[in-house]
Amino acid sequence: MDRDKLDSIYQYLSKAEGSKRNEILALLRTRVAGGLEAQHHGHEAGKYWMPLNSDLEAVANANPKDAFDFALETLRLDEGKNDPDQYRSWLKGNALIILSNPKVKPLLIADLGSENSQVSPAIEAFLNFQTPDAVQTKDDLSDYPQSFNLVMSLVILNDLKAQNIKSIAGLETKADQLLKNKKVKHLINLYHDISDDKELVEPLFRAIRVVLKSEDDTVVLKQLYPEDAENYFKLVDSDSAHLSQHGDDTASKYPSVEAALESIVHPRNPDKYRFGIWDGDIMVGSDNLTPKERNRAELGSWIAKEYIGNRYAGRARKLLVDFAFNQLHLDEVFCEVTIGNEPSRKSVERSGFTLSGEHDGKWTFVLKRSN
Fold it and tell me: Whole-model pTM?
């Protein structure tokens, strides 16, 4: 362990006065020590520098003002430097955890609403962090503590939306843009999959869920989330014969609830949008949108046999096409239908798709965005 670096950081932070901060300092030192250990012992040791949620919550609850002041001092570390020290980035992560605490929230709101806010510049800097392509799995996160600071900044801004703080409108706009970014969404999903971070990130994880609906229909498309796994599996399992009749492999891909959950939490294609088709509180099928080359996407859907006859596929497809053209700004979407599956053929044609060709036993139907 690089104890010289650890001790120098500790000494720097210990200059802050106030005996009530000793507990916070001890917690921060533990986290940094864990981070240094991770260099030699792999990601498993890195869990010690992940947010110590319960301890930091206890500190902030007991002394909100002291905790807030210490968070500000921590955020000021490395001011003016373009390449923040990695260890101090971990410390700043703990500062953001403190700022997300409900008891500290009034102090945070007061600071953000002032002309000389000390928190706003720090959050703005965290939002400008460019997520590296190298961050693909949870194991990669320990090398990029700045990614946690980005996510926690988004957590804080998401929680403050209802406050309508005019001075941070620009930050909120930036946050909204980032939440549409695939890399940022992937980061949020990775942190949500870490037990120590799950509770912190949960509200943001919910906020980025894609839900498609219209005012003139009861059908709603909800992006598949972990809690949908059981419903999804039950629907597939009860309808496996029907789903397999035209060569569809949906039933074979999800032989258990665990398999369905794994596909949702760790998708093979993170760029693919997977939705449950809902009518009220009943899941009736599934709809997918898979981005392809040349600004196109493939649409796919299935409806459980017991719900066929309500035109759910077409009603859901209408929502998905609108999403593709007006939110994702795609130029073209297409569907592939097994040759001989006349009900599906009629359904996509009613949705405005036209036959463009056939290959490998399937028809290809295309719909282009109107100019």
Answer: 0.75
